[in-house]
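Following up on my earlier thread - several people asked me to post the actual chain instead of describing it. Fair enough. Here it is, all 264 residues.
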Amino acid sequence: MNPLRILISNDDGVFAEGIRTIARVAALRGHEITVICPDQERSATGHGLTLQSPIRAERADELFPEGVTAWGCSGTPADCVKLGLNELIEEKPDLVLSGINHGPNLGTDIFCSGTVAAALEGTLDGIPSLAISIASFQWREFDFAAELAIEIAENAISKNWPEKLLLNLNIPPCLPEKMGKIAWTRLSIRQYEEQFSKRLDPRGNTYYWMAGEAVKDLKSAGDGPSNWPSDVAQIEKNSPSITPIQPDLFWRGNIQELPDIIST
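Reply from S.P.:
Thanks for posting it. Predicted structure:
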């Protein structure tokens, strides 16, 4: 296919191995790459935007392969993509990639994910967008994930990517030869326990450390093919998961189940 103009961001920061790998792989495939990402890790910032302080951006080309234009931005992942689309990039990109994230973005955790938020900014602007995550915080072999993500994106664009569709790709932490087949998946609903750990600092003052561990993953009860596995179940089978997401969060349940707004 013809070279694409690709904007790449993340929430792990400009020094993360995941983003440098996907920028390198995409550039080697002949695409025109611009990286705009946080200048430090800003994981779990969700779709936060910087409104009360200035946003600064500095060139960071030296961290990436020759020919890649890169910026480190003081803002959130969503800030980075907004700034890129409105100020730093002259031509609208053909594709937005976010990742490769160091850790999973599965189920309802996507609502806190800076990785997904960066991709969603592209979706909201009508640009095909893909969020990519390795479902492990320790795994550091990103080449296969980068190749798979670019191949998926190229294929989807060549076959008319549906408008306002965000794709969320999670890849299991294992070698390609031990991986199952990729499949469409539904978002699971993740439940946690022990969300906070209460502690004392050296001066005896109380502080809280957000902890929490997923204890239950439920299949989504929303619309979608009932025979699709949940994204969590797919990853547990050591198989890549790809979930179609749209920014329209409007409730699609039975209208009769809605509570009365005003008591009669």
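The radius of gyration is 19 Å. That should answer part of your original question.
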